[in-house]
């Protein structure tokens, strides 16, 4: 019995290590390259980035598995660890068939469809775009890290529900767990 438990433990450790490294092999359109990446622990998502310490900015590519009729979101929460206070990038199918990327802020759990709008975030966003390919949405953005702090609380989501043409609502389960703290300098998830 002990050898089987040891084998199972080693197998799970290797499996976890492989899953954690899976983002390394991802490629992006336009030959975009990123020095760092993290396979996020929920919702089949990964985050890739280049951090520029000279000006406190970061180029990010957030990638998540989703059907083309769904939506994905990635956010930084400068003041908390969950949705309330999150400054989000939402990618979803636009009315013209291309991917639309909104930036929006979430100030409460009682979000109404009219609250999901394209607006400025509490930190500078220099560029944003999105694409859908091979079953994945990818959000590309260049942004200023809040307070020039490399340690940021991040939140991500995915769903297929819309109201009035904008992403609205998501299921429970892992969707409530899809948050972590990330150090953009060291790459450590906390």
Plain-language structure description:
By secondary structure, this protein is mostly beta strands. The protein contains one helix and twelve strands. The strands form three sheets. A five-stranded antiparallel beta sheet has the order 1-2-3-8-7. A hairpin with a 2-residue loop joins strand 7 and strand 8. The longest helix is centred in the N-terminal third of the chain and has 20 residues. The radius of gyration is 17 Å and the shape is globular. It starts with a helix and ends in a 7-residue tail after the last strand.
Give a short summary of the structure.
It is found in: Membrane. The chain has 190 residues and is mainly beta. The protein has one helix spanning 2-21; strands at residues 36-39, 45-52, 57-65, 71-77, 87-93, 99-105, 125-133, 136-144, 151-159, 162-163, 166-167, 179-183.
Please tag this protein with its features.
single chain, mainly beta, five-stranded antiparallel sheet, 11% helix, globular, disordered N terminus, membrane, AIR12_DOMON, DOMON domain-containing protein, signal
Question: What is the topology?
Answer:
Blueprint: H1 2-21, E1 36-39, E2 45-52, E3 57-65, E4 71-77, E5 87-93, E6 99-105, E7 125-133, E8 136-144, E9 151-159, E10 162-163, E11 166-167, E12 179-183
Antiparallel strand pairs: 1-2, 2-3, 3-8, 4-5, 4-9, 5-6, 7-8, 9-12, 10-11
């Amino acid at each position: 019995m002990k050898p089987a438990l040891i084998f199972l433990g080693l197998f799970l450790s290797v499996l976890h290590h492989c899953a954690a490294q899976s983002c390394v092999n991802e490629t992006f359109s336009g030959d975009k390259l990123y020095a760092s990446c993290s396979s996020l622990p929920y919702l089949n998502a990964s985050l890739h980035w280049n951090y520029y310490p000279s000006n406190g900015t970061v180029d990010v590519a957030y990638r998540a598995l989703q059907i083309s009729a769904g939506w994905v979101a990635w956010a930084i929460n400068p003041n908390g660890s969950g949705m309330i206070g999150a400054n989000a990038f939402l990618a979803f199918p636009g009315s013209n068939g291309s991917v639309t990327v909104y930036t929006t802020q979430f100030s409460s759990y009682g979000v109404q469809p009219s609250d999901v709008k394209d607006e400025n975030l509490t930190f500078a966003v220099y560029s944003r775009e999105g694409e859908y390919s091979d079953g994945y949405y990818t959000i590309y953005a260049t942004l200023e890290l809040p307070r020039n702090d490399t340690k940021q609380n991040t939140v991500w989501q995915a769903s297929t529900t819309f109201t009035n043409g904008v992403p609205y609502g998501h299921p429970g389960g892992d969707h409530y767990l899809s948050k972590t703290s990330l150090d953009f300098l060291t790459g450590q998830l906390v």
